[in-house]
Design a protein that fits this description.
single chain; 10 helices; 4 strands; elongated
Length: 292
């Protein structure tokens, strides 16, 4: 890679200059990759029985695991021993990160990206929830604790040993290249997230306008966005002259632009939203039809 690239990178003031910060970023990425592998394996083995990219980014990363890992490493040494204390510490801190992440995403995009509300156990006929507001669940929290012990006691020492074989210059160079790739992926993903939010908002707005305009018609079915669109298309075949061209084009436009939104649904199949309930239900039904 040319010196011109590194000169440009340094001029942006986002490049790593400190080897310690560079190491921390590499560790963050490695934890994110480990988290992604665990998510893909867990969902693929126990639920989907196939490969599903569980990351929000395009790369094999789940940054929420990287954040949790860095926070654990930053804890005072007295909280890392004995092993049972490390387990509890990881369980609490990683669960807190997941809860805050879920809350922040919902506030920004008005959508709950994952939901554990179905996690419960029945004892003597009484249902006991194993989750908190659907944002975190006992099963995942226990896995977080186990992963924390494994990472701190086994993975982190291996990472430190691996990095010790490289010079400071190599470590900083690798970190800066990975930083650029990470930021590019992040920008693309954020743009697609915004597009996704805009699309489901438009679906809701379009559904509301259809319901307001045609709810008195006997042929119009308004129990869901899916039924509204289908009734419009079905009725238009026999009465095309009674429908504006713009309306039919908008129906087609909405359906063609569902593909991006469906890709996010594949990553987060338990996604929910009280504001965009009909929009998400419509996308989920379309996704289930594609799977068939």
């Amino acid at each position: 890679m040319s010196n011109t690239f590194f000169d440009w990178l340094n001029s942006t003031h986002i490049a790593f200059q400190s080897v310690e910060l560079a190491k921390a970023f590499i560790v963050f990425l490695l934890f994110s990759v480990i988290g992604w592998i665990c998510e893909v394996a867990y969902v693929g083995i126990f639920f989907e029985h196939k490969f599903v990219n569980r990351g929000m980014l395009h790369g094999p990363l789940c940054p929420i695991y990287g954040v949790g890992g860095i926070l654990i490493l930053a804890l005072p040494p007295r909280l890392q021993n004995p092993v049972w204390l490390l387990f509890i510490t990881g369980l609490i801190f990683c669960s807190l990160v997941e809860y805050v992440g879920s809350f922040a995403l919902e506030k920004i995009f008005h959508t709950k990206w994952w939901d554990y509300s179905e996690k419960k156990v029945t004892i003597k006929g009484k249902s006991i929830p194993l989750h908190i507001n659907g944002r975190i669940c006992l099963q995942n929290s226990i896995l977080f604790g186990v992963m924390t012990v494994a990472v701190i006691k086994f993975v982190q020492p291996l990472i430190e040993k691996m990095l010790s074989y490289f010079s400071n210059f190599i470590i900083i160079t690798i970190a800066n290249v990975l930083l650029v790739a990470f930021l590019i992926d992040l920008v693309i993903t954020v743009n697609k997230l915004v597009d996704f939010n805009v699309h489901i908002a438009r679906l809701k707005e379009f559904g509301d306008s259809l319901r307001d305009h045609y709810q008195s018609a006997s042929w119009f079915k308004d129990d869901s966005l899916e039924s509204m669109l289908e009734s419009i298309k079905t009725h238009a075949i026999e009465n095309r002259d009674k429908f504006s061209k713009n309306l039919l084009e908008k129906v087609d436009y909405m359906e063609k632009h569902n593909r991006l939104a469906e890709s996010f649904m594949r990553h987060f199949p338990t996604m929910k939203s009280s504001l965009y309930k009909d929009s998400l239900a419509h996308l989920k039904r379309q996704l289930s039809e594609v799977k068939k």
